[in-house]
Design a protein that fits this description.
126 residues; alpha+beta; three-stranded mixed beta sheet; 3 strands
Length: 126
């Protein structure tokens, strides 16, 4: 099976959807904040492993604690995933921080600052 096959893409989407639901409604660990999003999931073609990229709203300390909480709950999450999805194998889940949302928000603020600065210079010149 090719890595980017239609079947693999569909499995990635289903695992991401179910994983997000499990994290949102089933995880009771106080280290995992409410604003934890599953940004992307990459399930290996053999269904043995899964990389889950999560984004956490908060500073670096909150992100690291959330990652520790998710890692400690990986067995529970895997069992719940097995109950929800009918896959030949239930993948072993590894969690990784994805800071792309925070990066996008930061870049958006910087662009807004540049536009505001440019507009204020334009008004001063008139």
């Amino acid at each position: 099976m090719r890595k980017n096959s239609i079947k693999n893409t569909r499995i990635n989407g289903e695992v991401q959807r179910v994983l997000a639901e499990i994290i949102r409604s089933e995880i009771k660990d106080p280290r995992v904040p409410e604003f934890t999003s599953v940004v992307a999931v990459d399930v290996a073609p053999d269904l043995k492993s899964c990389k889950a990229y999560v984004s956490v709203f908060g500073d670096e300390g909150v992100e690291e604690e959330a990652l520790k909480g998710l890692t400690s709950a990986a067995g529970f999450i895997r069992r719940e995933l097995a109950n929800e999805l009918n896959l030949r194998n239930t993948p072993d889940i590894r969690f990784y921080l994805d800071r792309s949302i925070a990066y996008g928000v930061d870049m958006s603020h910087k662009i807004d600052q540049v536009i505001e600065s440019d507009n204020s210079k334009h008004h001063e010149d008139q």
